[in-house]
Design a protein that fits this description.
With 94 residues, the chain is an all-alpha fold. It is 82% helix and 0% strand.
Length: 94
């Protein structure tokens, strides 16, 4: 069960990182975030990733293997967040 929570926290954190980026701010927030708000989003995303790692590491007795699995899951999480941002950019604005 912890790995599901870890996966959801990781994906949410990656989406926050995308929103906090310059491109993500332009696409997802329509340039409405200030530098301070973007920095706060980055801090929240880092906390989400730390919580994701903690949940993943404690999901079973093999902490080292769980940590390696968490690192390998970060790649698809980054790709999904980036693809969502690109998809949103390609949609016509209404």
């Amino acid at each position: 069960m912890n790995w599901i929570i870890s996966l959801l926290l990781g994906q949410g954190a990656m989406l926050l990182f995308v929103m906090a980026s310059i491109r993500g701010n332009r696409i997802l927030c329509r340039d409405s975030l200030t530098d301070l708000q973007r920095n706060i989003l980055k801090c929240c995303a880092a906390a989400g990733l730390a919580a994701s790692l903690a949940f993943q590491a404690t999901s079973s007795d093999f902490i080292i293997l769980n940590t390696l699995e968490w690192m390998l899951l970060a790649g698809p999480e980054i790709m999904i967040a980036t693809l969502l941002c690109s998809w949103r950019e390609q949609r016509p604005r209404s």
